[in-house]
Amino acid sequence: MGARETNYDIVIIGGGIIGSSIAYWLAANSNFDGSIAVIEKDLTYQNSSTARSNSCIRQQFSTPENILISGFGIEFIKNVGAYLSVDGEAPELTFVEDGYLFLANKGNEPALKKTLEILDAHNVSDVIWQSVAQLQERYPWMNTDGLVGATLGVHNEGWFDPFSLLQGFKRKARSLGVTYIEDEVVGLTKDSGRITEVITKNSGAISCGGVVNAAGPYARFIADMAGLDIPVSPRKRSVFVFDCREDVPMEPLVIGTDGMYVRKEGKFFICGQQPDEDKDPECLDLDVEHEFFEERLWPALAKLVPAFEAIKPINAWAGHYAMNLADQNALLGTPAGMDNFYLACGFSGHGLQQSPAIGRAVSELIIYGEYRTLDLSRFAAARLTTCDYIRELYVV
Fold this sequence. Notes:
Helix content is 28%, strand content 27%. It has 396 residues and is an alpha/beta fold. The strands form three sheets. Strands 1, 2, 8, 9, 10, 11, 17 and 18 form an eight-stranded mixed β-sheet that branches. It has an eight-stranded mixed β-sheet with strand order 5-6-4-13-14-15-12-16, with helices on both faces. Strands 3-7 form a two-stranded antiparallel ribbon.
């Protein structure tokens, strides 16, 4: 085997779902003939946000761009073989299209109904309002006390195998000539507003024509190396698996009025919730917050589903959201004063489901200097300077 190249047209820092999607879309575009390297510090991905995700996709967002991103993501997942097949073999994503159910009380009812209007304006007709009577008829296992209704995605929402999608992107990218390097980025060389080298722990300096920061929870630390301050912070999210003594035929993923979620996972259930802001510090460890389940989730679960009074914890794991503390939406493109350092980070827990559209969008910025499919210009990193934030209300 010959020596590894030390010069690439594009170096992508982070080989998870976002970085691998960008690599695929770049390499698959006939208008790009440059060399691509993806630097990932752990190619087993055992601690990655992708592998530790609860792997869902939904249309129910308050931001129009996120709705359009999900629309393409759903089309991509349903037709993944048309994109990621290698030697006739397509990833098996096992998409479970059972929907999302956002519960409403008097406090959040106006926001949910406004979201229905936004969805309708973007030709999404398969999210519908459910009255309390309809909820009681459709879901007799649910306690509807305090509810005024819910929004239900009857199609094009659900969950799938995240690791299979990641491996599908990676396998296809490598088949198209992308190089994956298992190493850790420890520095960037900057000259006149451009990144000229990526410094790695074991492979030394790698020269580059452009760099993409797709480092997920570590994106801020990579940005620091470029002299850039971005409000992207790693926040831990614990996911809990439990068994229930009674049979609860729960189909959709249910989002409570306080943001708790629960859904069926085989014969078990999984659940979780974003902690209160004052109990959600920046964090890079993966220690499960078991007391959060006992003190916060279990009582809420039992109130929502009386059968959940008798449940048995089975398993738990923790992963990280890369939270954009400014407005919970993606940061894309080149910041002011830097013309070859691209951000693709700050997805606030939505990176997995947004990866097909984001990979395509960032590849277009690199190749054409503009978006050619979905216009995601409102997500430009420049809004950090102008404070023209776009707040996403539905962060689960």
